[in-house]
Amino acid sequence: MKGRVYLYFVLTFVLGIIIGGAGMFYYGWHTGRWRRGFSKERVVSHLQQELSLSSPQVQQLSQIIEDSSHKYRQLRGQVDPQFQALREDTDNRIRQILTPAQLDKFNALVRQHQARRHKGP
């Protein structure tokens, strides 16, 4: 009898781990929350291992990636206002075809989308 109690306890514990892990996997998979952001150090480390880079090459690679990251941020700063203007134009054109009830729901959806976009991955 005592052995069964321990067995049920262990089975309950193991099932809890499995179900919890499956739930976390499902959440991460469907929300995209498991994507890692860009990491210069991770890229350099990976290329260093895969290509057997020397120390001078690693330093040069780090500088190249840093320069590219800076250029990417500059380009994004130039292009983002254009994308924002296009989004606003699209939203305004959609608003013109909606009924007042639909308009309220649409505005709420737009606010949710903006909050997610500003929050980041």
List keywords for this structure.
mainly alpha; 4 helices; 121 residues; 2 domains
**Structural shape:** flat
Low-confidence stretches: none
Discrete helix count: 4
Alpha-carbon Rg, integer: 25 Å
What kind of sheet is the major sheet? none
Q: How many domains make up the coordinates?
A: 2
Number of DSSP E strands: 0
Could you tell me how far the N terminus lies from the C terminus, measured between alpha carbons in angstroms? 51 Å
Helix content: over 70%
Percent of residues in β-strands:
under 5%
- What is the mean pLDDT? 86
Structural category is mainly alpha
* SSE pattern, N- to C-terminal: HHHH
Structure notes:
- With 121 residues, the protein is mainly alpha-helical.
- The model has no long low-confidence stretch (mean pLDDT 86).
- It is flat, with a radius of gyration of 25 Å.
- Helices cover 86% and strands 0% of the residues.
- The chain has helices at residues 2-31, 40-51, 55-96, 100-119.
- Helix 2 packs across helix 3.
- The chain contains 4 helices and no strands.
- The protein folds into 2 domains: 1-35; 36-119, no CATH class.
Write the layout of secondary structure elements.
Blueprint: H1 2-31, H2 40-51, H3 55-96, H4 100-119
Helix pairs in contact: 2-3
Summarize the structure.
By secondary structure, this protein is an all-alpha fold.
